[in-house]
Amino acid sequence: TRRQEKNPPGVLMMDAALSMAGRNLALAAVAAAVLALKIRRVDLAVIVFDSTARAISHLGHGLDAESLVAEIITQPARGYTNIEEALRLGSRELGTVRHAGKTGLLITDGIYTVGDNPLSAAGEFPRLSVLLTEDYKMNESLCRKMARAGKGELFHIKGFEDLPRKMLDIANQILR
Asked: What is the Cβ-side half-sphere exposure of residue 122, based on CA atoms within 13 angstroms?
C-alpha cells in the first residue's frame, strides 16, 4: 500500500466581503496566513470570496508561502457575500486530488447576501470546518449547520490575542 502524505490536502475559503471589513478581515487574513505557513504549498488551495469566488492558489501548484501570505493580506473587503459559490469552488478544487483526509476550512462571519443557501454546498465536502469571526453581525447558527453538514467542527475567533495559538490548534486538528 502507498503511504499517505503527512498533511492531507486542504482548501481554505476566506470571506473578503464588505461584512468582513476591518477587524474581521484582518483576523481572517492572519488566520489564512498561519495556515499557509503550516501547510506545504502543493497541499493548499486558497479561495477568497465576496460577490464571487476566485482561487488565488491551487492544489498541486500553489504559491510559495511568502507570496501567498502577501496575496491574502492584501485582499480588499468588497462586494456582497456568496458563501455558496466559495464552497462549490472549494469542493471542485478538492475533487482534483485523491486523498482520504482532504478537508476544507471556511473563514467567515456567516452572513451571506448573494447566492443560494450554502448548506447543500457544505455537504459536498468530505470534511469542512468553519472558523467563525465573532462580531455583532454574524450568523453562528448557519456556521454551526455548515460545519455539521460538512462533518467538521465550528471554531470561534474572538480577537487577535486568540489567533496564533488557536490557528495552530485548528491546523493541527483539521490536518490530522
From this structure: 26
Please state the φ and ψ torsions of residue 24, each to the nearest 5 degrees: -65, -40
Burial class (CB in 10 A: 0-12, 13-18, 19+), 76: exposed
Euclidean distance between CA atoms 152 and 120, whole angstroms: 14
Residues 139-176: tens digit of each pLDDT: 999 999 999 999 999 998 876 676 767 777 777 776 66
What gap in Å lies between CA 51 and CA 18, rounded to an integer? 10
Q: What is the dihedral of CA 50, 27, 151, 40, to 10 degrees?
A: 90
* Whole-structure pTM value: 0.88
Q: Any residues with CB less than 8 A from the CB of 58 and at least 6 apart, and which?
A: 45, 93, 96
Read off the C-alpha cell for 130. 468553519
Radius of gyration for the chain, computed over Cα atoms and rounded to the nearest angstrom: 14
